[in-house]
Structures
1.
Amino acid sequence: MNKKRKEEIFSIIEKQIFDLELNIERLKDKIKPVSPDVSLGRLTRQEAMQEQELNKKLFENSTLKLTKLKYAKNKVFTENFGNCDICDEEIDIERLKIMPETVICMNCLNEKD
Ligand SMILES: [Zn+2]
């Protein structure tokens, strides 16, 4: 991958990290324990807890993605960035633009499933 493309990917990563960190901050508020003395009806309280479960999952996925993105950001300008971890072929640039943290190409991903 040439330097210009790497710079492009680098700015995409920075943008994604920025958005993700904002999102994580918002989610942190939403996953605080539902206070037992909130005067909600039984169903509403259950719904609130279900929503909280969903937000917890989102929070976990987001922090995991953030870790991967930060790792990718550190690696963008190394020689092997953009190569598949399994077959060592270049990962499709369009795939990297959407998921810059990916380390596996579509071919290997399909074979894995
Ligand atoms: Zn591959």
2.
Amino acid sequence: MIFELTPEQKMVQEQAKRFAENEIKPFVEQEEEQHAFPLERVKKMADLGFFGCGVAEEYGGNGMGFMESVLLAEQIAKVSPSWRLPFNMQNLGPALTVQEFGTEEQKQTHIPKWVAADSVGFFAITEPNSGSDVAGMKTTAKDCGDHWEINGQKTWISNAHVGDVGLVYAYTDRAAKYKGMTCFLVDLKKTEGVTTRPIETKLGLHCAPTGEVLFDDAKVPKDAVLGQVGDGFRICMWQLNNTRLGCAAGALGCAGGVLDLAIQYANERTQFGQPIGKFQLIQASIAEMMAEHHAAQLLVYRAAYLKDQKAPNQLETSIAKFYAAEAAVHATNETMKIYGSWGFSTEYPVERYFRDAKSFQVVEGTSNIQKTIIAGIALGHAANR
Ligand SMILES: Cc1cc2nc3c(=O)[nH]c(=O)nc-3n(C[C@H](O)[C@H](O)[C@H](O)COP(=O)(O)OP(=O)(O)OC[C@H]3O[C@@H](n4cnc5c(N)ncnc54)[C@H](O)[C@@H]3O)c2cc1C
């Protein structure tokens, strides 16, 4: 077992750290206030090769894998958890899924554009009445001979109102249940019958757009189907097992960012004539955060390593996502306490991490859903894939 990153991986990590420090940190608080998502930054990230991980060279890939994607997303999330989202939207979500299931034409048309951020990606699974229960979705796609007609509503979709082309899951045969779902490649801006609107009531992740997509007799071409008709549920689960890792990397970064803030404040803030970091109860908080952060890091890196080896990793990915999300929420909660009233103030960034961290317990399958996957595999009800 080797616990050392390669020199190239360390360079990738360093590059992302510099990018976060120079290109995000100086603007993050103002952008949070304005709920801004400058697309030029997504483009800059693409130009640095951030979204080519796991992608074959002929589609714009750069020879990097899941491990590098995790290292990049972690460093970015340390400064802004919002800005880890493009790793899933441009790379680990639609791009890798089309690479796995798409036709040669679909791969050539779409993947290079996502990798270069010439097209803003998204994936639309969740609906008002179906979140964890993916198979409970109501959206349908009807075969109309020379095209498909999609009807339904997707909600809580990252990039909904800024997105170009992405993945939409719908039932083509509801009676066939899990085998009746199909995945479509849909251009949100060019498809007649599609409207989008932002969700403006979010607790956090203010720089990561989230919204709704409505399909009203939306016409998509016959060749918009990804994989086979009826393969949608399997494709969706495959995709989530990858985007879940991106989420875990974000949680890891969030926990690491807030831990740095906690240590800095505990050394600076003086009460009863000494830095609060001298008090054992504060030390206990720091120690817990530190131990959990290290554990989360090992789990996230292990899941990334297994994916790069193309080894079974569903169990390890769910463990990493579950643990990193819980660690992020715990770390931000502890840091809020360490900051006292200043934790409660928007003048300090701690409350931003606190709000953002909660998202990690929800997205890409809630913490409960991760537990059901972990227990299911542990109990032998399902195989680790
Ligand atoms: C910021 C943000 C971005 C998002 N981006 C996207 C996106 O890009 N694309 C997309 O499709 N979706 C996206 N989502 C939606 C997200 O994936 C869902 O919110 C999530 O899957 C949970 O679904 P739900 O909110 O409907 O909760 P529900 O499924 O209604 O769950 C409610 C509660 O019940 C629990 N629960 C449900 N089923 C079980 C069970 N079997 N066992 C135990 N407990 C259970 C859950 O853990 C949760 O605590 C996003 C959400 C957020 C907040």
